[in-house]
Each structure stands twice: as structure tokens, then as C-alpha cells.
Amino acid sequence: MYKWLYLDPYAEITFNHPKKRCLIFNTLDSKKYLFEGKEYEMIKRIFENDYSIKITDNELKTNKLLINRIENNFFGGVYSSDEKPLILYPIINIQRNLRKFKTISSRDQGTDILENLLELSIHFKDNNCILRIDRVIQLIRDAENSSLKKINIYIDSYFTHKTEIEELLSFLKTVRIKTYIEINVKDYYSFINNLPDIKSNEVFAIQVIIVDFDFNEKVVEEKNVSLKFRISNEEEYNFFTNKVSESTDYSFEVDFTKVNHSFLCENLFLNEEDIQDIKLTKQNYDANKTLNRNLFGKLVVKNNAVFSSENNSKAIATLDNEINLKQIIFDSLCKSNDWFLIRKNVKPCKSCLYKNICPPITENEILLKKYNLCTVLN
After folding, report:
1. Structure pTM?
2. Where are the alpha helices (DSSP H) in the chain?
């Protein structure tokens, strides 16, 4: 009878071979374990042999600390058997992954493709580009059988787009999809005076954006709205904090176009301890290896075009032409990389042991063209 050192299939392993280090992530309890040197070599050997290796009595002694660590934390151990243990490690197999059809010229999109649409953002920019609201409404109508559960409306200039905004909101009252409206504090009172029922309609949630120190402070006492203070330094944070009370519903958003590096490092960068504390299900861990959970399923409408993310400059479709929602979703899946922008495919994250554990890449990281907002790789 032989002794076998094995790892359980719920122990996910990530390697950094040049540095001879590896990370085991126990998907049952979200605990992480780092190994290097000789322990790394042993884990690598187990991994390359289907999660179990034959081990001698001498190896049991020399690797006692490693084996104790594995057994005491319940992600493997030593097993006695004449036959090699069969460890069934799960492999991700997405049966309806449309990206595998990229090379096929003629494709049946089917009705299931609408399940990939989760969120729609509509921008009313501070420019003279007037949105084709009829086409926007058509998009939402076509999404009736989709998984669309959230609509975001960003109003940069209410008066420029007043007619289109009011037509869209009137339509959305009948659709009953939760709609989040962001509007600049300078336009808020004009907006709410023209559309007083919006605040009381449970379909809508209003968030007032405050950027400047000089703002109408009575908005702090408004009911049924939340405030979002856009900041780029500690001075702004302290100023706005002093303007709110305990009853104020508010949050902060960093303006990544203005923020200085030191403020970013001190307040937003993750350190290794932060990452170690991240709780992640097996499902989300596997998702992080396949798609971007922040961006997947989201479409953005601005300047009469449809995009697969906020910071993508290449439109999937234009509202000036006839639109086909299924084709738009299909092209987002097959032609755009935004929905599948993951850390294992970008530098420097691709070499990091935590690449499948860290939160998915955000729009802000894409905007900055910097994916390592952390102290681990800085």
C-alpha cells in the first residue's frame, strides 16, 4: 500500500513560476495560503500530477510542516491506497459561450442572447448631440425579454436635453425597470420642479452630483434623494463631510481625471491584507477567470451611439441607423473585449498570485490605463 499526498478539488492554485511562489485559495472558506521555495516545488508537483502524488516515508518527514498546514486547514492530506486517488478537479465549460462562434460567418443568435443584457446606461451629455430618444426607447422595448434589471440615466445638461429626458422618463414609468438618475446639483431644482412626481415614484432613484464648494446647501436636507460628492483630494473630502448630517444619504466618488497619486495610494489602493480579507465564492472565483463581473452585460448609450463600456471609443452601433438589440449584444460578446477584460490577461496583474481574487477591472482603471491600483505590484 502506498501513501499519497493530495489536494482537494476545491483548492484553487495560482502560480508565479519565475519567482517560485504559489497561492492556494480554499473556495470553501475563502482563506488564502502562500507557498514558496521547496513548498512551491511540492505544490507544483501535485498540481502537475492531477492533484495527488505518491510520497515516501522520508518525504513525509521532510515535508511535515507543509503536510500539517495542508491537513490542518482542510484542503488536502495524506491518503493510503494501492491505487492513485482520483481527484475530479472541475473544469469551466460554458455551453452557451457565444465567443466560440466568432469565426462562423452565419450564426443563429436565438432568443437566449438577450439574457446577457443586464444593465443599460444613457448619457445626456453637455453638448449639442441630441439623442434619438425614439431609438433609445426602442432598445428598451426590445429588451422586454432580457435580463435587464437596471437603467442608469446621467444628466450632464438638463436644459439642453429637456424634451428628450422628459419623454424617456415618461416612458420608463410604464416599463417598471429600476432607474437610477444622476443629475448635477445646478440642474436639480429645475428638473424636480418640472417633474415633481419623479421623487415619489418607486421606479426612480435620484442622486445629486456635487462637485464644487459653491453649491446650494439646502439640497443636503432634501428627502428621497441621495448625494454624491465627487472629490479628488483630502481637502474636498473634509469640506463636504462637514456639510452633511447623520440623516443625509450620501457617498463619495473619486474624480479619476483630477485625483493626485498620493490621495489615490492612501485611500483607494488595496494592500495585501485587504486582498487576503476578500471573501469570494467558487462561482465568483471562476467568473473572474472568464469574464469581467463589473462590465459584463452592460451597454452604454451616448452621443447617438451604443458602446460596450463607458470608456470604449469604438461604437458597436449607431442610433442614426436601424438598430437590432440582439446584434448589439452579439457584437459585444464576440467583437468587444470589454466584457471579458480580466486581470489574467493584462499587465502587470497577469503575473500576480491574486489575479483571480482581486475585484474585477473597473471603468476607472481603464480610464487611467493602470490596472494595479494596489501596493502588491507597486
Report:
1. 0.90
2. 38-48, 57-62, 64-72, 133-142, 162-175, 185-194, 234-241, 261-267, 272-276, 282-288, 325-334, 363-368
